Amino acid sequence: MTAAQAGAPVPSPPPPVRPVCVLVGPPGAGKTTVGDLVADALGVEFRDVDHDIEAAAGKPIPEIFVDDGEPHFRALERAAVAEALATHPGVLALGGGAVLAPETRTVLRGHHVVYLAVDLADALKRVGLGAGRPLLAVNPRATLRYLLDQRRPLYEEVATCTVRTDGRDPAEVAEAVVRELG
């Protein structure tokens, strides 16, 4: 006999786990650095989906691109984002290209998504010559400009708020994010 059949109250399922916020933005926006500071300020854990992908694949992202190709990386990324959105209660940072997938944009609906916006000049200072960033390996300036132009509308589509990072240090940006979450 079940609890419901015996007339006992049936416990309701636990509420779904949701991130406090999800950070999106291009390479050089500061998602990992700022995310770690925001998590510390809020007393929650920080998680970077790119690290999840590397752990699942057993190798760094540049090697995934070289060995398996970008489509394979993007499939790993979609799965990692969906899993993290469903299980992580802290601050979550997505890779710069995660918003390219319509599935990812769909699962981001209803989440507090902060777009860390950065202009080309600041992004270039932060990423340098693209070391460790496979999409920036050839002509980082032109490629980053293209990525910013291509992805900006997608970041804006998923964002519930935008925080500019230009000319600000990570602590200032983190404070602005915390205020937005307020």
- Low-confidence sequence ranges: none
Instruction: Determine the number of helices (DSSP H or I, runs of at least 4 residues).
Output: 8
Q: How far apart are the first and last residues' alpha carbons, in Å?
A: 47 Å
Class by alpha and beta content: alpha/beta
Helix content: 40-55%
Label the overall shape.
Answer: globular
Overall radius of gyration: 18 Å
Tell me the total number of β-strands. Answer: 5
Q: In this structure, how is the largest beta sheet organized?
A: 5 strands, parallel
Percent range for β-strand residues? 5-15%
State mean pLDDT (0 to 100 scale). Answer: 86
Sketch the topology as an H/E string, one letter per element.
EHEHHHEHEHHEH
Q: Going across the biggest sheet, name each strand in turn.
A: 2-3-1-4-5
Quick take:
With 182 residues, the protein is of the alpha/beta class.
Descriptive overview:
Helix 1 (31-42) packs across helix 8. Helices cover 51% and strands 10% of the residues. The protein is globular, with a radius of gyration of 18 Å. The protein is built from 8 helices and 5 strands. It has 182 residues and is α/β, with parallel strands linked by helices.
Descriptive tags:
182 residues, alpha/beta, 5 strands
Please describe the topology of this protein:
Elements lengths: L20 E4 L6 H12 L3 E3 H9 L3 H8 L1 H18 L3 E3 L8 H6 L5 E5 L2 H8 L12 H19 L2 E4 L5 H12 L1
Helix pairs in contact: 1-8, 2-4, 3-4
